């Protein structure tokens, strides 16, 4: 007999299933993603007498596995067959009891669950024996440090004990290998079926036979693609037809389509959606809870995610016995369930109990233990359910792996997953003591997957994470106590269902559906999602549609009247409901038959226009509150050009000196404007970047530009002060471009980079004309609608943060100072294509100097938020990413630059990742594992990787070197990242450098000790340019009383430069509780080609009802009205007229006129227009008028002029007028007004230079050179909408010299004589006082010479580059004069309650003034309780604070404060001194230099007159000629 008998070795048997405890069948295959299959392999029944070391996995599209080029399998992989739990942890084996003793760790119990197979090699024979963990409650692997135990099943090949007293206590330090493997087959073709098989391999005999997986083949495919070309077109007044192109499903088919309907929300979600809010959940392998001595970080193993209810049926049935804690299964469920999974047992449809698969007890092919006792009725064939669960996912699964696994769940629609690694770099678990707190205590440490649900809507149930398969590393689980890996799911953003959301499901072959029950005219969004057996696929883009039909009938009365003997006049409000499609025209039909038969009906079609608009106040119930008011806005936000610093000071109030204006220079061909130097001590200059935001518009030298939105790194033609570095000490920057060094235009206090007016991203250049003249000391203009910028805007923001320009926190500005108030209209972004809002009127929303709340344009009480439409015009945010080594760090050896030369990526590709919000780069593998970029890669590579992030659609990256020779303190690279896409406009999260040489990113030092990177490299990010967005306000009138006079509305509108001239008629409409004003725009603004904007001069007015108060429901509305003339035969009876609206769907219902028909006949002429009277002598009146617009059908033959002392014109005989004069039409002659304008240098020792501007009837010309020709002045005036035709001549003021070659060697001034040949309102061009809202006083023609210059040398003339030889008019008013031919009276009086400056006995507390023979009302000196004086002011003798308001404003009739009158009668706070004088003398302007200018009344500024010796100056605006002294 031989002394030793060895079992013969052979190839191993067929591999089995991985699931411990189940039948030893075949390996399992699962769909892992649209391009991947997961294969799970377990130990074979027989290993051939030698340990199985590998499994070979093969796959092919052919079942014979011969699809490769040479007939071999298409793909194969060799996979290690076992997981090494330790190399020497097994200390003892008791063969009799079948028990191993080992130095167990926390998660060994989960790895060695019942049924698991493992190898242990014994030292005495060198054989690796295969064992199976024993099943049964008493035999669960026990973890107790060095005394941990594993119970094994009998039937193994090892007969003898080892390491115990039974065999002499031999030393035993054996390894422990758990058999089984998972392998992902990646890179498969979507839509293709793949066959998979597996074989086992041992060292002795090699590879065994192959066995097919279960199932033997899989169709690799993902979700259905989004349906294409989705359209939504109106089908009827209450339905929309939604159509789409079929979705593609490689390898599959569409079973149906889900069509969703929704409406927009006013405030976008945090992710920018206007349709609800996508649910975002985070899955984290760490916890931030401080658990001492507990390591919760997962560093190995797998986990699963499940979704939805426990309602997915499992195969077979189960037997459940009441009172037992286990189920008997009819089929092996180990491949379908995991420990800790939730299950539901249903003995009947209404008799179910939810249980949990036990963590440690028996789970095999026939028995399933649970954590709870089954309490239901005993059942033999019960049905078992579980949640829809993913395949096992690796502890560090990529975002794509998790996304693919979730997409494979039929219960879930499309999801998007991103992954980050949050770490606490200070933690050192390897060297930490057992008593140290967990490294993640209070911090973060692990992987985080953010799951965004793209097709499932609303607040979704959380994903259910099962962490049973997760493992801890040896460093973190070395007998440290009962630690366990942690897996947490938290809701980052709760899903919100879109407004009015519903859906329908249609068949898979459908390509359209009609969505019913919609509201006519409301905009809906529709999206389409394809369904397959894998669930919902990707959703289409939202397509907008509006249910529509032809317009409704006109809502208000259509009026018909006679015009002439052959014309009728029809007046209709253009107020038909559009019914979903814009009204384009109104059809006026006329016929002599009330039936309007075909063939005898005249149809005239008129486009919608806004020439006439009706403004109407109304209330459900009167009275209106005292002081109730409203305002009107012009709907065009482009505004008018004004000198920019005048716009900044126009709200200071009358009587205040504006600061000296800032002048600028521009070079011919240059693309910057530069602030010119002031004359020392005479001028001040404003910070340009505080008043012009990026994207703002400016005009200089008659040319319009925008301030560039791009960052400063834009190629510009720059000279002088415009050449500047961003934040570095040198003016030159090294870049990757072919030009190593370039300059760029700085945006700052002294310079503004110029871009095209219609494209703020493209540089533009000043054109100096044919001679190439440079522009020097020129005025700078901006649009008066500009509010400058709002800082840090983001999608969804429901409020703006006002800023001056782009200057940051030190430039905050209170927009209320500029008159912005609640209810006003503003536009964010571009003045024409931006997004329109109103300032919220909700008192709960903060409105302050730092916050402007946004509301919907159609309802100022409803909150609204910014969308991409507004932020498309925001300045780009620019961030700098730096990766460098600091040579000055002591540890590196200060002063030794060679220590900081990081090893170049071309030598060893050290890597890093960038984190943006919740996303981390995860695509490229250039610098290591997915997402790792090479630290010094080119700009294009960094840009491409950032654009793979879902939250970034477009960035621009510029790369620069960091070197000492460039002025840097560090060595490395910097990347400038400019966020330019729609998704990243406005304020964006700051990038973060992560994984720098770690977490899978390569570290050169790990490759070669001589390389430099990981221990020395530093990553930093800073924001170089914060985003701002331009904001524009509509030109808005001053507040108007609810019952304002017609002239008040007229002049309030004409005070807006976007309104040229209007005529206003006030009426009371039938059934109204308020007034209606018919506003007729009688002239249009001229086209402004210089702005390159498309300009619509007569846009609709907007009304601000904030401040309009009445008993019940006050309103103010604006409706466009049309008046059209209808031909009508004078004989044959009446002509009938009706009107209907038209849109693209047809003509709506007709509305007949009131009356329904009229017979035309000759009418009396309309009243004359523009009737004015003026005293010209003690016995004469000058009366002027314009003929009527309608003569009634016959020429006007004469005019009757009546005069009377009484306004009722009944002082004469028999109640007639006291006198009258008949003026025949043939005798009426007009006389053109003539006015002169003069500019002059008055010292006789200096020279004139600079610019001036003219204004006529509220409209301003562009800047004109001081010596403008007559033709230039004529052209400038005729460009104004208030002027049709003028004649201009020019004369020169000279100092001739006999021996000079010319007659004028010293031109010291010019006079232009202007004859107004044709203007909107002919005759005398002096204004007449008609309303306190008039903006023009005196003669309508005025001159602004504040930018004229007085120069020391003739050659200077304002062209000296430094500007030091010239003084502006404001700096030396005695040197430069401007005047017109008509001068208004100016008087000054002293107001002193004590009778004189020296003191007196009058001591009066009231007074009145006599002006032009009439007395003002009595004015009382009092101090309202709400009046405060923040500044110091010395009051003389009179009680401190008593006085009266100088100007109209907050202290007046609407703020009544009871006072005691002079004789004891009760009086109230009266009108201001200005209003009192204007009541008897027409328009005046009051100034008082000695009055306290910072008084406040109820929070508003007021100029206060204490009447303690102050000089009050009165400038008469409408009184002509010499005015008697006050």
Q: Separation of termini? A: 147 Å
Largest sheet composition: 10 strands, antiparallel
The low-pLDDT segments are 288-295, 424-444, 477-482, 649-659, 713-744, 890-896, 1087-1099, 1357-1363, 1397-1401, 1431-1439, 1452-1469
What is the percentage of strand-forming residues? 35-45%
What's the overall average pLDDT, rounded? 82
Can you tell me the overall shape? Answer: elongated
By secondary-structure content and strand pairing, the structural class works out as mainly beta
Q: How many β-strands, per DSSP?
A: 104
Tally the helices: 10
List the quaternary state of the chains. Answer: single chain
What proportion of the residues is helical, as a percent range?
under 10%
What radius of gyration results from the CA coordinates?
44 Å
What does this protein look like?
- It is a single chain.
- The chain is mainly beta and 1526 residues long.
- Helix content is 4%, strand content 39%.
- The chain contains 10 helices and 104 strands.
- About 9% of the residues have low confidence.
Summarize the structure.
The protein has 1526 residues and is mainly beta. It is built from ten helices and 104 strands.
Main traits of this protein?
1526 residues, mainly beta, 10-stranded antiparallel β-sheet, 8-stranded antiparallel β-sheet, 104 strands, 39% strand
Topology:
Blueprint lengths: L27 E6 L2 E6 L10 E9 L14 E6 L1 E13 L4 E4 L5 H4 L5 E5 L6 E5 L15 E4 L22 E6 L1 E5 L6 E11 L3 E2 L3 E10 L7 E9 L2 E7 L10 E8 L16 E5 L15 E14 L4 E3 L5 E4 L12 E7 L2 E6 L10 E3 L9 E11 L3 E2 L4 H9 L7 E8 L23 E8 L10 E3 L3 E2 L16 E6 L5 E9 L4 E4 L8 E9 L2 E5 L3 E3 L13 E6 L2 E7 L11 E7 L9 E7 L4 E13 L4 E6 L6 E3 H6 L13 E4 L5 E4 L12 H4 L5 E4 L2 E5 L25 E2 L6 E2 L8 E6 L2 E5 L11 E9 L2 E6 L7 E2 L1 E2 L21 E4 L6 E5 L12 E5 L2 E5 L4 H4 L5 E10 L24 E6 L2 E2 L12 E2 L4 H8 L8 E8 L7 E10 L12 E3 L9 H4 L10 E8 L2 E6 L6 E2 L4 H9 L6 E7 L8 E8 L17 E4 ...
Antiparallel strand pairs: 1-2, 2-11, 3-4, 3-12, 5-6, 5-10, 6-9, 7-8, 7-10, 12-13, 12-14, 15-16, 16-33, 17-32, 17-34, 18-28, 18-31, 19-25, 19-26, 19-29, 19-30, 20-21, 20-25, 21-24, 22-23, 22-25, 27-28, 34-35, 34-36, 37-38, 38-73, 39-40, 39-74, 41-71, 41-73, 42-69, 42-72, 43-52, 44-45, 44-52, ...
